[in-house]
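R.M. (postdoc): so does anyone remember the format we settled on? I'll just put the structure tokens first.
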């Protein structure tokens, strides 16, 4: 599957779509694709979904779902409006059928200081147990640099393609987190003076940006002998001058272990934070907001 977002220009009123292509066979070069166009926010057609991130999950059974998250901005003003998450019916899309998309918009009251939600991605190894809901993580993006953060926001996305109204994201109408995962303190990699442009390069005074206020790279799910864990990374400041380095996080049972990934030859286990397990997330208050299926037609006629 490949994807890109399409729009006539910004600032502007759209329309704004996520274009998705699913290969018809295991030969994506010569056997054609099923094509889809997903509007970022159907109830607000002038909102654009930026920074799209996708993931693959094996539930609901039997064929699982493709997950998509985007940051929502008002097209004309570019004002931030929240985060939208989608689940797409993988089994149907593999045969060119409807995407049966289920989507939720997390409003400003629900996202708080965070954005750029990242969904867990299952690729290989032991699969998540049947019925395990998809998990989304996010970190805060404070208004000012230098703020020490000590938690990661965690949400469950329960998907039901048979009865879409049973689908839920997070807790309540604002889809707030199911859990706040306590972690060792870290500082997002940006400063008030330089913004994100803080990474030095050899041979030039120009610096590159970090995008240091969000989780980067796909979030990897692993299941080893029944011990489930999520692997994430984000860029953090490591000194008073905000020297940037990558930091990996592994929420797992019995504790939340942080590993310094600034060097591939050095892994330092930091002091454990409060105990955390995926089972503990499941014990949080049950979400109450109902989902709704979004009408998306079957695949556009395939191309050769």
């Amino acid at each position: 599957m490949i994807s890109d977002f399409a729009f006539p220009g910004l600032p502007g009123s759209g329309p704004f779509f996520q274009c998705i292509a699913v290969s018809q066979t295991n030969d994506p070069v010569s056997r054609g694709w099923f094509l889809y166009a997903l509007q970022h926010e159907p109830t607000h057609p002038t909102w654009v979904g930026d920074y799209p991130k996708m993931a693959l999950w094996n539930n609901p059974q039997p064929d699982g779902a493709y997950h998509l998250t985007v940051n929502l901005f008002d097209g004309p003003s570019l004002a931030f409006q929240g985060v939208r998450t989608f689940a797409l019916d993988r089994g149907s899309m593999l045969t060119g059928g409807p995407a049966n998309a289920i989507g939720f918009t997390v409003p400003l009251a629900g996202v708080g200081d965070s954005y750029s939600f990242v969904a867990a991605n299952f690729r290989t190894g032991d699969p998540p147990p049947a019925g395990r809901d998809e998990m989304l993580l996010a970190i805060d993006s404070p208004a000012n640099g230098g703020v020490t953060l000590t938690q990661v926001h965690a949400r469950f996305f329960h998907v039901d393609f048979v009865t879409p109204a049973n689908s839920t994201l997070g807790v309540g109408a604002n889809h707030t987190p199911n859990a706040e995962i306590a972690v060792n303190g870290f500082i997002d990699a940006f400063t008030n003076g330089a913004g994100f442009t803080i990474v030095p390069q050899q041979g030039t005074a120009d610096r590159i940006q970090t995008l240091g206020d969000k989780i980067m790279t796909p979030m990897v799910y692993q299941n080893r002998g029944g011990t489930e864990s999520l692997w994430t990374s984000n860029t953090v400041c490591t000194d008073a001058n905000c020297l940037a380095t990558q930091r990996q996080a592994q929420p797992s049972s019995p504790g939340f272990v942080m590993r310094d990934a600034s060097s591939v030859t050095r892994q330092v286990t930091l002091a454990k934070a409060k105990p955390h397990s995926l089972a503990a997330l499941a014990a949080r208050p049950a979400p109450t907001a109902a989902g709704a299926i979004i009408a998306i037609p079957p695949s556009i006629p395939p191309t050769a």
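R.M.: ...and that's the designed sequence above, right after the tokens. Also worth knowing: Confidence is low (pLDDT under 50) at residues 253-304. The helical segments are 90-93, 108-111, 278-282.
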